[in-house]
Design a protein that fits this description.
The chain is α+β, with helices and mostly antiparallel strands. The protein has a domain of 119 residues: 3-Layer(bba) Sandwich (Chalcone isomerase). 31% of the residues lie in helices and 34% in strands. The chain has a 7-stranded antiparallel β-sheet with strand order 3-4-5-6-7-8-9. Strands 1-2 form a two-stranded antiparallel ribbon. Helix 2 runs antiparallel to helix 3. The chain is globular, with a radius of gyration of 16 Å.
């Protein structure tokens, strides 16, 4: 019943996908680029609901090109409190599983800067990572910009956390790629 009420309370004309009480728009326009919702997912960690998320890819981008130099966005809405300082080590570990050591060393200054931008989150807070070719990857918290990191190589490494050959969670990867 609450889900039905929440759906009715959405602004008229807003197309949204819903997962576990979180709503994600069907499409976004970022920097004059149309991004389409590819899929949504619920990530569980040690049996607990950690977060829900949505992946957006540039309109017309095949999912097998998700890590290429194409516009993309991932939004993550948290179900649990997480300390900002804990994001950096988790980011480093996940990226290291998906790229070679030389690339990791090359990205280290940008990765350290990116990790310094994270803040504590509470349930309901939402981080978004948006990559626009030629501009970089922007991190926002609840819609507030935190910083932009240049480079398609950085974006590919960062998005590999969820979309790489060794993602954080295989089931979550399939969900956000719309493969489930």
């Amino acid at each position: 019943m609450l889900a039905a009420i929440a759906f009715v309370l959405l602004p008229a004309g807003l197309n949204a996908a819903q997962i576990d009480g979180a709503y994600f728009k069907e499409s976004l326009i970022v920097n004059n680029t149309m991004l389409k919702l590819t899929g949504t997912g619920l990530l569980r960690y040690w049996g607990f609901k950690a977060y829900v998320g949505a992946l957006y890819l540039e309109a017309g981008c095949p999912i097998d090109e998700a890590l290429s130099d194409r516009a993309k966005r991932i939004e993550i809405q948290y179900k649990r409190s997480i300390k900002g300082k804990d994001f950096g080590s988790a980011t480093d570990k996940s990226i290291a599983k998906n790229i070679d050591p030389a690339t990791l060393r090359h990205l280290r200054p940008r990765l350290d800067y990116h990790n310094s931008l994270y803040e504590d989150v509470q349930p309901g807070d939402r981080y978004a990572l948006t990559y626009i070719p030629g501009r970089g990857t922007e991190l926002t918290l609840n819609g507030e910009p935190k910083g932009v990191i240049e480079g398609a190589d950085f974006a590919a490494a960062l998005f590999s956390i969820w979309l790489g050959p060794k993602p954080l969670n295989k089931s979550y990867k399939k969900q956000i790629l719309g493969l489930n």
